[in-house]
Specification:
Length: 152
């Protein structure tokens, strides 16, 4: 996937996306998957995600991923659905804030929520994605050890 942003101030702003067969994209709530190579031009404002930016529901297994998924839904959903997903994201963020004392995680969460409240959903999602590795490390550390004599 390649992006070409035409920043010439005298031209209509548009974004050209070069997509490969199999690439996925969410545009204003619609899920697209490309069967063949395609060049897509977005000529007006659109909320979109593509490729690795898209988190599948089954992959939202950690606190940060659940928060990211709620933000993703708020970002690409229909306007009427946005308040519900924003509320869900706020609740998940509050739960995460209450469950951690890690200063770096707290800073990232606060910045992400500031971004979300300022309608910078994509930036909020980018920040929360930084927490994926932290969650993975914490959950790996918390995994119970097999009991002595138990099959492993």
């Amino acid at each position: 996937m390649n992006m070409i942003n035409n920043d010439d101030p005298n031209r209509v702003r548009r974004l050209v996306l070069e997509l490969r067969a199999g690439d996925r994209m969410l545009v204003n709530g619609a899920a697209l998957q490309f069967q063949t190579r395609a060049s897509v031009v977005l000529s007006n404002r659109a909320r979109f995600l593509f490729g690795k930016q898209i988190l599948a529901p089954d992959d939202a297994r950690t606190p940060a991923r659940r928060l990211y998924f709620a933000m993703q839904a708020a970002y690409v959903c229909e306007d009427a659905e946005r308040p519900q997903y924003l509320g869900f994201a706020r609740a998940l963020a509050q739960d995460y804030l209450e469950a951690t004392s890690n200063a770096a995680v707290l800073r990232i969460l606060h910045q992400a929520m500031d971004d979300l409240e300022a309608d910078r959903c994509w930036e909020a999602m980018r920040r929360v994605r930084e927490l994926f590795a932290h969650d993975d490390a914490m959950l790996a550390h918390a995994a119970p050890e097999p009991a002595q004599g138990a099959p492993g």
